[in-house]
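Please, why this fold?
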Amino acid sequence: MTDRSNYIKIRVGKFMPKGDEIYADENGKLKASPEFSEILHEADSQFREPIITFINDEIGLHNWSVKFNQFDTDGKIYDVRISCNTDEEAIKIKSIIIDKIKGLQFNWLNRSDLS
């Protein structure tokens, strides 16, 4: 984990729309179309806003992150990878996500059993 204060703690991976593509810019860095970049930006906000304050209050500002990756084509199921220092923190983060983000199904991924 990191103690960097500018570390992005919540990220969302979405399926790329059909016909869209990733390309390399002049420096060789991979880029997505502006439309897909906007989809990712909006998804990050949609998932981050309901939970970040509660996780920061419970766990602290550093040493945790959550990555949501779309699992199905409808965007209703997400794999969730929780990274933090202890299993107790992971269970607290899981419970905050369940409480604050409704209408989605989650597959929990962590170094411990979160079922």
Q: What stands out?
A: The chain has a mean pLDDT of 87. DSSP finds two helices and six strands in the chain. Residues 34-59 form the longest helix (26 residues).
